[in-house]
Amino acid sequence: MRRDLLPIEVFPAWAKLNSVQLNGLRVCRLPGNRGSGLVVTAATLKENSVLMTVPQELILSLEHVWIMAKSDVHLREVLEAVGDYSRSARGAILIFLILQMTSSTSDLSEKVGVSNPLKEYLKFLPARVHLPTFWNEAERAHLRGTSLEAALNTKLSFLDREFTRLKDATTSISWCQRHWWDPETGHLSLDDWKQVDALYRSRALDLPGTGHAMVPCIDMANHAQGDSTVALYDTDINGDGVLVMREGKGLVAGEEVTITYGDDKGACEMLFSYGFIEESMLSAKELFLDLEFPEDDPLRYAKKAVSKCAPGFRLFYQGDLIEWEGTFIWLLCVNEEDGFQIQYLQNYRGEKELKVSWKDNHVKDMSHLHGFLKDSTLWDVFNLRALIILQERVWTQLSALEGSKMDVKEMGKLEDINASVRDNALQLRDLEETLLLHAYEEFEERKTRLLESNIVQDYLQNRFNENSSIAEEDFS
């Protein structure tokens, strides 16, 4: 679907018309093919200066989408048709964006939606946000062995399912059928849905007092991490969005105003959500690796049914050390002979439900399992099991990275690969390989220490004796 765009040069007129206050700065095109950004026009701007104020009615949030739906029958029809999906900030905002994209299509045969300032603002946003969800096959091949490879595949499948659900929910709405789904007159495609998702992911802010929202003008600010961040976004007493100069910072005319998209975000998340990794980023910071229940686990399907946590674990730096977190690991570490049970019970309504217990304790939530294991006399044993699983998964990921290096090198020579995409992907590979190597070494040291534990040695000796006894009986 082709949408109309406006040049950034006419942005000041839109800002003035909609009462956006720009105090000593302007939105303009940046040199070096860097897109648009915020640049200082005043002689100097001092710390704690309010650089920008965006009226509350321009902030695109879950609440505001539903307020606009009261006077926009087309928007309301779609929001109601998709049910609970539109009760989340992301769902409501994506529906709003796709409707504005439809309304902005110049060859539309009828009016769809109600004219609003945000519809015009969207015309200033890029026609294409080059996130990994838009990378071609050769570009995606550069991600083999990285944590982003699995995340991207999951995301693409998720977007496809979302788009299918949107179609199923709105086919019965006459104007949706005509302008979105009809083989002759419909224009909406999966690519359009990926585009509004990319706009939301790359521009949404966690605005204090509002939650996840898109804030026009403030979202024009580019990212800089750490001490390079010069401004912070916030909400004032009127509910308006404000951009404020950080304490201890100051700028002069011609310098760029930057915000942080999240200093704690790892290299994978930065590339996934924003399409770049800063050259100055020296650490992957964190990554997520997926896991599955083994085929030979007798409780495999029952564990799947009760597990509500992400199937994997997060690796991250804490100072100079590697740490990890993930409830899923502990489900892999226990079985019935340890005292872990999953039973079908009948509740007071006569319905069957699964009950999880650890010895005599009811486990209401899987996040509590770790606490029960830590209080156990065999904690060192469970901890060792977890480390073995972690280290094996880290080794598998390292092997995938190493095994794909030659293919990635050959792919990098192809002409249909964007140079920036290639450089970012290669940087991600290097950063994640370093983190994984550190993790493997750290887990090896912890394993060695645990194997010296009296608790672990007694447990292993007992298991050895049990197995020897079983083997003698079998021989007899």
Report the average pLDDT across residues.
Answer: 91
Strand content: 15-25%
The low-pLDDT segments are none
The helical percent reads: 40-55%
Overall shape: it is globular
Number of strands: 18
State the strand order across the main sheet.
1-5-10-9
The description of the largest β-sheet is: 4 strands, antiparallel
Number of helices: 17
Strand pairing plus helix content: what structural class? alpha+beta
Q: How many angstroms separate the termini?
A: 76 Å
Q: Evaluate the radius of gyration.
A: 27 Å
How would you characterize the overall build of this protein?
The structure is a single chain. The protein is α+β, with helices and mostly antiparallel strands. The protein has helices spanning 11-17, 62-69, 73-81, 89-103, 117-121, 137-141, 147-170, 174-181, 190-203, 267-274, 300-306, 327-333, 369-374, 379-403, 405-411, 419-451, 454-475; strands spanning 21-22, 25-29, 36-40, 44-45, 50-54, 205-207, 211-213, 222-223, 231-235, 241-245, 251-252, 256-259, 286-290, 312-318, 321-325, 340-346, 352-358, 361-362. 44% of the residues lie in helices and 16% in strands. Strands 1-5-10-9 form a 4-stranded antiparallel sheet, with no helix packed on it. Helix 3 (73-81) crosses helix 4 (89-103) and helix 14 (379-403) runs antiparallel to helix 16 (419-451).
Keywords:
alpha+beta; 476 residues
Helix/strand layout:
Blueprint: H1 11-17, E1 21-22, E2 25-29, E3 36-40, E4 44-45, E5 50-54, H2 62-69, H3 73-81, H4 89-103, H5 117-121, H6 137-141, H7 147-170, H8 174-181, H9 190-203, E6 205-207, E7 211-213, E8 222-223, E9 231-235, E10 241-245, E11 251-252, E12 256-259, H10 267-274, E13 286-290, H11 300-306, E14 312-318, E15 321-325, H12 327-333, E16 340-346, E17 352-358, E18 361-362, H13 369-374, H14 379-403, H15 405-411, H16 419-451, H17 454-475
Parallel strand pairs: 8-12
Antiparallel strand pairs: 1-5, 2-3, 3-12, 4-11, 5-10, 6-7, 9-10, 13-14, 14-15, 16-17, 17-18
